[in-house]
Amino acid sequence: MKFKILFISLFITAISFSQNNGTITGVLTDKDSNNQSLPFANVVIAGTSIGTNTDMDGKFSVSTTPGNYTLQFSFVGYESVEIPVKIIANETVTINQALGSAGYKLEDVVIRATVNREKETALLLDQKQAVVIKQSIGAQEMSRKGVSDVEEGLTKITGITKVDGRGLFIRGLEDRYNNLLINDLQSPSNSPFKKIIPLDLFPTDVVGVLNIYKTFNPNISGDFAGATVNIETPQPKNITKLNIGFGYTTSNNGVDFLLSEDANSAKGTLGLIGNDRALPGVFGTIPNGKNLSPAEYENAYGSKSWDVSKTKSPLNSSVGFLHAQKFSLKNERNISYIMSFNFDNKYSFREGVDRTFNLGQGNYDNNLFTTQYSYQTTFSGLAGLKFKTNRYNLNFNTFLIKATESKIQDQLGYTNSLANKTNNLIRMNQFEESYYWNTQLYGDYKISEDGKHSLKAGGSYVKTSFGQPDRKFITGVKESDNTINMSYGGNNLNRQYLDVKGNFYYSSLLEYSLKFGESQKPNILSIGYNGSLNDMASTYRFFSGRKNIEKNYTANLNTISTTINDDIKNGILYVQEESNGDYKVKLNQFVNAGYFNLFMTFNDKWDLNAGIRAESSMREIKYREQGDPFGNAYRIKKEDKLDILPSVNLKRIVNENSNLRVSLAKTITRPVAMELLPINYINADGTSESGNPDLKNSENYNADFKYELFPNNKELFAVGVFGKVINNPIERVFKPTANSGGQITTFKNSEQAIIFGAEIEMLLQLSRVSESLSNFSLGFNTSLMNTDVKIDPRKQGNELENSKSRKLQGASSWLINSDLKYDFIFRKDWKNSMTVVYNVYGDRIFAVGSSGMDHIYEKSFSKLDFIWTTAVSKNIDIKFAVDNILNPSYRKELGTNNNIKITEDSLIVKEFKKGVGFSVNVGYTF
Questions:
Q1: How crowded is the C-beta side of 493, counted as CA atoms within 13 Å?
Q2: What is the DSSP string of 102-142?
Q3: Residue 614 half-sphere exposure, CB side, CA atoms within 13 Å?
Q4: What is the tens place of the pLDDT at every residue in 232-265?
Q5: Across all residues in the chain, what is the average pLDDT?
Q6: Given the DSSP bridges, would you call strands 59-64 and 185-186 parallel, antiparallel or unpaired?
Q7: What is the pLDDT of residues 131-183, one digit of tens each?
Q8: Which one, of 312, 392, 358, 426, lies nearest residue 902 by Cα?
Q9: Most buried by CB count within 10 Å: which residue of 377, 387, 657, 831?
Q10: What's phi and psi for 141, nearest 5 deg?
Q11: pLDDT tens string 833-868
């Protein structure tokens, strides 16, 4: 009875107490990110234990007894703010506050902090709030998963895989269907063979957040089908850090290794031999069929240009330095800077079969066993400066990426269907280098103090180059491990010089935005312009060793230069240029676009993004055909096109934890440079790749539907379906040649491709299963896709197609990405995270079959990695990783659905293993 009386008394007292309380509510926003809501921040009444955290939308509510208090707002990496507040019984006080990231005045102590926008929780919130379908991965998650470059980071996103040497496949679609922005500005590629710059060249030091837009909206380029990737450079934070790493890959490091004589030097180790291999000035800038005299040859090429050094491959290594600082100035202004550089090198060994089939005949044209030694270097540097006030942000970035590869490749077997000559040896000695230098100036300005009227503008200037100077081939018959028997003439002692220069690439944007409606979640109308101007030119010149006198001899292949030099001095051999009229090609492409973009909210449940983009593109190719004289006027192929690209993105907020999304849009796909340019790129084994200047842009009609559930700030479940209709899809095909003439790969437009598929994504804390698993979390995503390409056999170019419908070239039917994370602490401040990552994709068509032969397929490939990151102290962190644990074979294979008899025992056309990689990286933060 006493207990009941006590309970009733306490209950009445509590009711009375609560009825006299007052309430403080509001929204906390991020001043450095255009006042986006700031979740999980601390809101505390000073001097009490009363407080709360902001929710996913930055909202908070605190109740207490009447009186005068100080309300404290704080968050890791942000400034703390205190606001006096008066609480009145039974009344609600609204306080909205913006926090800026932490900085320090020049005389202050350095404060080290991690900026929230790069955290996984913040990016989940960003994904939840966005109207378009997007996913992001930040610096924090990339570090946890042991990611060392941008390309690897993107493979952790739903529907994305990478293929060795061929870049990213997004939603099963290969490189040509994707697009790249850097800080919202269009970016070109450093390689004519790829649509976007290989993203494994970008170290994660230069990245704050990777955003992947899977649906189109009008303020990004209309060149969109798979996805658009936007790299945001890091946000300001105070840090000075040094990283040093070493790696070992089985069968790649510590083994016998071949390097060209010039690469086996201090300059070669740093990748600085490009100038030494440049086209000798004696040949001039215009081909003229010149024969080199013995003195000119020695002056141009020296005494060891064909020689190769046999050595041992050491460990792979890397070094990186990052320094960034932020200073707070008067009147809510701050200035920050960042600089970083990274250098890494890698030794790679590959061996396996390398074959081609004769179209329509069912036998091998080439049947070779390839052994390849590749030494790669990458240097990257970033310098950035940011000035911020309460009205405008101004950013300046410049970054340089230089990549080189020294490659020795031996191919043993037969070519041109000569199956009785199985000991032919082809050696390729190749050096490849590329430069990418991007300088950007961009910012935003609040025209009105309340931010209702604002401007966003930016521009970038990019210089690129890609070269394969003095790419040379030796052919003969292998006599022993080190010796070759050979004669002069034919395709022996050939040299190639490929030089593709991006003369300039300009990208610009200008956008005016008007906010209207409610202040907490306003509607936004944007009107803008963005464009790009790309000007590039390529030269491709050929030189051959020609005989005056017949000679057959056996020599050591690695030191054969002495014999060749002597024969040139004695008049037995000479070098002559054999370039054709098509040696030079120019490309100019100018894209201008204006757009209208509207974001609207209806009754707090519906978010709409609708707009239209008018994109004008003018493309001009100047070229000569093979038989044209060098001095003839260029032939010109022009294409002017105006594309009207509407889009609608609709989000229905089901409740505070879930959304439904619908997206409809029209976009286009432009071809990759080497798919388009009339260049015939010739390999040592006689195979070649030829561009098609008659390619048209593809037209894409896209539809997406997605449901998302966010149970809390660390979990996600999403399922979506998508569909695409692609008119004039661009595909890789084989071009018929004369009997045993060497396989030619080219590109064509098919009539139409219909694509539909589904995606599932999940982030799960395993504490849901058992409390004993509270330190474990699981990430899983998968994509399933069906494609159907329609073929009109009456259309020119389709005569040799095997059927009227098939799968789309380059598209996988399924893929899976997953990771399992375990977090634990050894002792105070010694934090650890172990992650197992697994990726796998299904078979896809590498090149379309014809003449009764099935397609060439890239076979399913799986990858299992282990990463252990540990923070030994506040200053030292260590990452240990095991890469490609399963070490499966990468394989291309002729399909089994052939209409002609295949006379060979094996359908495998290419196969090799990468090896299992072990790496350790140590970071020290000063």
A1: 24
A2: --B-TTSPP-----GGGSHHHHHHHHHH-SS-EEEEEHHHH
A3: 4
A4: 887 767 889 999 999 999 999 999 999 999 999 9
A5: 86
A6: unpaired
A7: 655 667 766 666 555 566 666 666 666 666 666 656 667 766 777 888 889 99
A8: 358
A9: 377
A10: -70, -40
A11: 898 989 888 999 999 988 888 999 999 999 999 989
The CA angle 687-429-375, to the nearest 5 degrees, is 110
Beta strands in 31-111 (DSSP E): 36-37, 42-45, 51-53, 59-64, 67-74, 81-87, 92-94, 97-99
Tokens of residue 195, six digits = 């649509």
Amino acid at 790: K
What does the alpha-carbon distance between residue 99 and residue 91 come to, in Å, rounded to a whole number? 26
pTM value is 0.84
Cβ-based neighbours of 637, under 8 Å, separated by 6 or more: 620, 621, 623, 693, 694
369-to-469, 480, 590 alpha-carbon distances in Å: 25, 16, 44
pLDDT-derived band at 552, boundaries 50, 70, 90: very high
Provide the token pair at 696: 């048209």
Burial of 49 (0-12, 13-18, 19+ CB in 10 A): exposed
- Please tell me the number of Cα atoms within 13 Å of 354 on its side-chain side: 23
Distances (CA, A) of 414 to 298, 343, 366, 453, 558: 33, 40, 6, 70, 21
A 10 A CB-CB count for 291 gives 11
Whether residue 511 contacts residue 500, with contact meaning beta carbons closer than 8 Å, is answered with no
The amino acid at 172: G
Tell me the mean pLDDT in the region 584-610.
92
Tell me: pLDDT of 661 over 50.
yes
Q: What b-and-e string marks burial along 698-733, b requiring 16 or more CB atoms within 10 Å of the CB?
A: bbbebebbbebbbeebebbbbebebebbbbbbbbbb
**Residues for the chain: how many in total?**
926
Residue 233 near residue 384 (C-beta atoms within 8 A):
yes
Token digits for 390? 């309460």
Token pair for residue 491? 């395709």
- Mean pLDDT comparison of 51-60, 481-490, 503-512, highest-scoring range: 503-512
Residue listed under structure tokens 């030079």? 584
The rounded distance, in Å, linking the Cα atoms of 897 and 882 is: 38
Q: How would you classify the pairing of strands 805-806 and 744-749? A: unpaired
